[in-house]
Amino acid sequence: MAEQQTLSVLEPGAATDRAVATAVAQPNIALIKYWGKRDEELVLPRTDSLSMTLDIFPTTTRVHLDRTALHDRVALNGASATGEALRRIVAFLDLVRERSGRPERAVVDTRNTVPTGAGLASSASGFAALALAATTAYGLDLGPVALSRLARRGSGSASRSVFGGFAVWHAGHGAGGPDGDLASYAEPVPAGDLDPALVVAVVNAGPKDVSSRAAMRRTVDTSPLYGPWAASSRDDLAAMRTALLRADLDAVGEIAERNALGMHATMLAARPAVRYLAPASLTVLDAVARLRRDGVCAYATMDAGPNVKVLCRRVDAERVASVLRGAAPGSTVHVALPGPGARLLDEAWR
Ligand code: DP6
After folding, report:
1. Distance between Cα 216 and ligand 1 center (Å)
2. 39 CA to centre of ligand 1 in angstroms
3. Per-domain boundaries in the chain
4. N or C, which terminus of the chain has less Cβ within 10 Å?
């Protein structure tokens, strides 16, 4: 796989003088959702999750060490990062500094091509790209699994964007501490000869009112439906692995759709309720149900936002996209295929 080739060219010791690196990563969409942490600090999830990395919406991040700077400087799409976004990136750089033993501050320039904060997994591609660029710039030579473990600390779903195609993120075991940290990482998941596409209907690209971090905390703390969903999600994951191996896209879609709707049910039952789905989301869900009645393999999944992603066969993707465009006028619709994992750009070798 391309990302493994790219990562494996890093030789131990060879990277120590490299003070600049640029990495690219793509978002992933979970077919079995991550919703709920058992350790906030280490970002340890309560359940395993499974995703497909997309070939669209890359995030490109350049990290450059500045020996003379007293603070990290971070630009997000050309504008200086502030507040929570800056705090999370600096906290992540602190982890990389701690591991590398290098104290320098960094200049980070990150460019997202996906709307930020709209439930389109910008934090997944963002922290996967940052993890690879920062560890390389600081001279750390992590393999993909260790990189995934580290990316998890920035944003849980980022652990999966280290890998291309389908990836499973293991919840691991233990309450926290070093053992909990070690056991929770993502890795590629075996799949048969599927030819899937994910049609992304962006019904609203604005930032969400409640962050996924806050919403999942509230759900775990207050929703009576959380426990039952987490238990059924374990069964969904086992069934999903079988469906992927058998290359049974109808089964994959059916399991993904019920898992996502269940996750939204847990939020609706939180106190106070969290509702990400908008009227346009439900209109798209109706269109997906109609496509199925017409014999098209099409199943929906939704994250912490109103946008709907529809899993279908690659040969049907354009038809599905045009049905969704007609169903939700004003939305923008993108067709994604399975994409690559996080990788370095050539600049790192100069
Ligand atoms: C609904 O990975 O953004 O997209 O770990 O708090 O940063 P933090 O959360 P994040 O949550 C993603 C939740 C989800 C489901 C998923 O991607 O599995």
Report:
1. 8
2. 14
3. 16-191, 196-336
4. C
Cα radius of gyration (the chain): 20
Beta-strand pair 28-32/73-76: unpaired
Domain boundaries 196-336, corresponding CATH code? 3.30.70.890
44 CB near ligand 1 (under 6 Å): no
**Is 123 a pocket residue for ligand 1 (Cβ < 6 Å)?**
yes
SS3 category, 340: coil
Q: What is the pTM of this model?
A: 0.93
Q: Which atom of ligand 1 is nearest to the CA of 32?
A: 18
Instruction: Convert the pLDDT of each residue in 303-341 to its tens digit.
Output: 999 999 999 999 999 999 999 999 998 999 999 999 999
Q: State phi, psi for 230 to the nearest 5 degrees.
A: -60, -40
Q: Say how far residue 344 (Cα) sits from the centre of its chain.
A: 18
8 Å CB contact between 123 and 161: no
ipTM: 0.99
Per the CB < 8 A criterion, the answer to whether 120 and 307 are in contact is yes
Q: 16-191 domain in CATH 3.30.230.10? A: yes
